[in-house]
Specification:
Layout (H helix, E strand, L loop, with lengths): L7 H12 L12 H5 L15 E4 L4 E2 L6 E3 L4 H18 L5 E3 L6 E6 L11 E6 L2 E6 L2 H14 L15 E2 L2 E5 L5 E7 L7 H13 L4 E5 L1 E2 L2 E2 L8 H4 L16 H13 L3 E8 L4 H6 L28 H17 L4 E5 L8 H17 L3 E5 L12 E4 L7 H12 L3 E4 L2 H4 L21 H5 L15 E8 L7 H8 L2 H10 L7 H17 L21
Parallel strand pairs: 3-4, 3-5, 5-7, 10-11, 10-19, 11-14, 14-15, 15-16, 16-17, 17-18, 18-19
Antiparallel strand pairs: 1-9, 2-8, 6-7, 6-9, 12-13
Helix pairs in contact: 1-16, 3-4, 5-7, 9-10
Bound molecules: acetamide (ACM).
Length: 543
């Protein structure tokens, strides 16, 4: 495998030079000339940065005769071919039939080579030249991620849903790409505000562009219970009947949830469902008096305080509830992981917390799943195989970080979601109308410019399973608000999860990210125009 032939720093310097002749956008260098010319996008200048790029040779240009060729007999690979056709047809206007590989030559070939061990479970190779583009992977997940690379090599206008003139050209050369981390997640809080199945699918499609592979759904909290449980029906019908601010809320039926899982799987994302326990549980407590130590159900809650609710640890019925909920959720969830929360249990005594988390983890294991918990789980005893999700801050107490590090050295895997880096609900700057400030302002550089492999003192990179960008929704209620907070920070978190540490460089990243601006716009994403990023100036074709 070849490393990037041009060092990131040198490439950045070259791009800045190339941009020097374009109209200036304040102090930031412009990339207008690089972005808007009809020359194909240089190979590998995408997000996340690929592991290895060897540019060279003439490009490939799609035409009305291009076919998408897939090895015969691979159903999932063929589905990836149809997905690719679905991305390319509206803007190119080309028919792009999906055909057996042997039935044609050239065009776009998707092929599986299960023995190509260097590509791992999710890696791919892209080879482009005048005769066509070939994507090779060991399995369909790798083909899917390769398809994201291919779409990003095409002009941003390819993302439009009406026919554009093109030309649709892919630079020549080869990309060989594997992810740094196996866990590259995004979390959506559907409890504080409910988001419909269609809204979740829309987010899944956005995440896919950046090779995210886990969709963590925060399904329960004080303000709403969002998943039907047959053995405890009032959880959804009553506990899901409102949200922050007092709106009607909502919940997913089991078929709704299955549809989300199916759709996520078609985008190679595993759904990680979370039932937050023993705190963040008012919606459940409000639904069943018997879950409360005093037998009295509290009212539904539509505010935004945290830490006031707890399941009743001494009450045997509590564990019937946990068992039923976990059993039904595990049966609906094909993925390995089940998230049991465990954060901010300020109304649960320490001994009770330890006892509760112990029992809850055993119930998860009984139903064949692996536990994920917020990092407060390290204050109890993480079960073998458990992952903890770290959401502390740079300024968090050293003792708290050391407790997490000790668990990591003892074999607990970590997913890193430092709140002052990757919480997508934090304001970018003081001017951001949406979001929170409790973890500080998180502009684009701050969310990108850290190394998950060297982040927590005393934690070896081998203990880090990956990163996740949570989006809490106390103050987020619409698709447009969700887009504004997620973009453009989410692509940076995705890059931290996917790209080798050797490609990490803010100066070149901000230029690559700037080139994503027209693509985000073409996808209909009204992203935050951070002043840290040299967004293209001037009219964007079709923009
Ligand atoms: C959290 O932000 N309470 C995990």
């Amino acid at each position: 495998m070849h490393r990037l032939r041009t060092s990131p720093r040198l490439l950045g310097a070259l791009l800045l030079l190339a941009a020097a002749g374009a109209p200036a956008a304040g102090a930031a260098p412009s990339v207008a000339s690089a972005t808007l010319s009809s020359a194909p996008r240089p190979l590998g200048r995408i997000v996340p940065a690929p592991a290895s790029v060897t540019p060279g040779g003439p490009p490939y240009t799609l035409t009305a005769a291009t076919r998408i060729r897939v090895d015969r007999g691979h159903r999932a690979a063929r589905a990836v071919g149809h997905y690719l056709a679905g991305v390319l047809r509206p803007s190119t206007g080309f028919p792009l039939p999906v055909v057996d590989a042997a039935a044609a030559r050239g065009g776009i070939l998707l092929r599986l080579r299960p023995a190509d061990a260097a590509l791992g479970d999710e890696g791919y190779r892209l080879e482009s030249g005048p005769g066509g583009v070939t994507l090779t992977a060991r399995g369909p997940a790798g083909l899917f991620h390769g398809v994201q690379t291919l779409r990003q090599q095409l002009p941003a206008e390819v993302e439009r849903d009406t026919v554009r003139p093109g030309p649709w050209t892919v630079a020549g050369g080869a990309v060989t790409d594997v992810p740094r981390f196996a866990y590259r997640g995004a979390m959506l809080d559907v409890s504080r505000h409910f988001f419909t199945v269609a809204q979740v699918k829309r987010y899944i499609d956005r995440l896919a562009v950046y090779k995210i592979n886990k969709l963590h759904l925060h399904l329960s909290d004080d303000q709403g219970w969002r998943i039907a449980v047959d053995s405890w029906p009032r959880l959804a019908t009553h506990g899901g009947s409102t949200q922050v601010g007092g709106g009607p809320g909502g919940h997913y039926t089991k078929d709704d949830y299955r549809e989300i899982v199916r759709y996520a799987a078609s985008r190679y994302q595993e759904v990680v469902p979370e039932i937050d326990m023993p705190g963040h549980s008012n919606a459940a407590l409000a639904s069943y008096p018997g879950l409360n130590c005093d037998g009295v159900a509290p009212p539904l809650y539509t505010g935004t305080s945290v830490g006031f609710s707890s399941l009743c640890v001494a009450e045997p019925r509590t564990y019937d509830f946990v068992d039923d909920v976990i059993r039904e959720l595990a049966a609906l969830t094909p993925g390995r992981h089940l998230h049991i929360g465990g954060d901010e249990a300020h109304s649960t005594g320490h001994a009770d917390y330890v006892a509760f988390m112990d029992r809850a983890q055993r119930i998860v294991a009984k139903y064949g799943k692996s536990v994920i918990g917020w990092h407060q789980l390290t204050g109890a005893v993480p079960a073998p195989g458990a992952l903890v999700q770290y959401w502390g801050l740079d300024r968090s107490p050293a003792a708290e970080k050391e407790r997490v590090a000790l668990a990591a050295r003892n074999g607990t895997g970590l997913v890193l979601s430092p709140a002052d880096r990757v919480y997508l609900d934090m304001k970018y700057t003081a001017d951001t109308p949406l979001g929170h400030t409790w973890a500080g302002y998180v502009d684009v550089r701050r969310s990108y410019d850290w190394d998950p492999g060297a982040y927590l003192p005393g934690v070896p990179e081998s203990a880090v399973r990956g990163v996740e960008a949570p989006l809490w929704t106390e103050r987020i209620a619409t698709d447009a608000q969700l887009d504004r907070m997620a973009f453009p920070r989410l692509p940076g978190v995705a890059e931290l999860g996917w790209s080798p540490a050797a490609t990490h460089d803010w100066e070149t990243y901000r230029v690559r990210l700037a080139e994503q601006g027209p693509r985000l716009a073409a996808l209909g994403i009204d992203y935050h125009r951070s002043s840290q990023v040299p967004w293209p100036v001037g009219p964007v074709p079709g923009g």
